[in-house]
Amino acid sequence: xxxxxxxxxxxxxxxxxxxxxxxWIWGRNVTAFRSKHSLGLAVFGVVLLxxxxxxxxxxxxxxxxxxxxxxxxxxxxWQANIVVHxxxxxxxxxxxxxTWD
Length: 101
Prior knowledge:
Blueprint: H1 4-33, H2 36-60, H3 65-71, H4 75-100
Helix pairs in contact: 1-2, 1-4, 2-3
């Protein structure tokens, strides 16, 4: 059986890494171009980064939730949760590719 907590942890960790790269690029663009578009992307990236860091904290370190996620969460709920994380990872891969190009 798939250990859903590990899938979530890997996906969210990849999301955090990609968002750090994107926020760095967009932040650099804000200082270089001073455009509202770059600022909007940077703020969006920071908020999404905060959401993913918080998810990672819940999965790894929270005294109550980390244990619940690892042992007691129903598989169907995990599958739904994983779909959201993995879709976000796919979207961020594409966004990083487009931004880096």
